[in-house]
Write a structure and sequence with these properties.
single chain; alpha/beta; 10 strands; 25% strand
Length: 249
């Protein structure tokens, strides 16, 4: 990560309320190109809401979000164009069961980018190969394991050639023995220089792969730093308590 490089994602004063409940309480965050930022914290701390505000799956109550120089919250911004450049991988795979793996990956290429069938098919197969599923292009979701389905969902995000990818608990719906294959794909993306923001409970992956770890609690970023600091010598009492609780489990 080049010091002083312009952030790909710049968030200032981000607030989000659901009724009278303030879920995000003034978040400031910069994510630079090729950086892997890992977001940890207890359930209900606002982690997923933060990700969903980045591409306006949730509408922020206040604040600003700049992505690759674009004002995401401006009424003049084509949010669908922004979403093509911010890939998102969810906890649930959201695959169409009646479509093959290649068909699921091709769908946005055909509908959104208006690519011809042959070109879309070639891009889809290349994306599936990138996540280790070249031999599963013709398989339907019901014929795939959960880990394979999640890798198809990652391929679908990658096929649009995003500038950054947001991962919202990408392994939490998987059986433990299937988690490794998804984390391996994420590790390879990181090595290839993809900008990533990851919300996850996979602390071993955070220690090994993250450039920076953010600890969120009660809608605020309480502490941030390199993994060695956050996991080894957290400065804030709330961070320490959370890390100790994880270690016990």
């Amino acid at each position: 990560m080049a010091p002083g490089a312009r952030p790909v994602l710049s968030i200032r004063g981000l607030r989000k309320s659901f009724g009278s409940v303030e879920v995000l309480k003034g978040i400031d965050l910069d994510v630079r190109a090729r950086e892997l930022v890992f977001v940890i914290g207890p359930s209900g701390s606002g982690k997923s809401t933060l990700l969903r505000c980045c591409n306006r799956l949730e509408e922020p109550t206040d604040g600003s979000i700049l992505f690759d120089g674009i004002d995401v919250l401006s009424p003049r911004t084509d949010i669908n164009a922004v979403r093509r450049r911010i890939g998102m991988v969810f906890q649930s795979f959201n695959l169409y069961p009646h479509m093959t793996a290649a068909g699921n990956v091709m769908l946005a290429l055909r509908r959104v980018l208006k690519k011809g069938r042959a070109e879309a098919d070639a891009i889809a197969r290349a994306a599936l190969a990138r996540v280790g599923l070249a031999d599963k292009a013709g398989s339907y979701p019901g014929e795939l394991s959960g880990g394979q389905q999640q890798r198809v969902a990652i391929a679908r995000a990658l096929a649009l050639e995003p500038v950054a990818v947001l991962f919202d608990e990408p392994t939490s719906a998987l059986d433990p023995e299937l988690v490794g294959s998804v984390l391996q794909v994420m590790r390879e993306l990181r090595e290839a220089g993809m900008t990533m923001v990851v919300v996850s409970h996979e602390m071993g992956f955070a220690r090994a792969a993250a450039d920076r770890v953010l600890f969120m609690d009660q809608g605020e970023i309480v502490e941030e730093g390199p993994p060695a600091q956050i996991f080894g010598a957290p400065r804030h009492a709330r961070t320490r308590a959370f890390i100790e609780q994880i270690v016990r489990h």
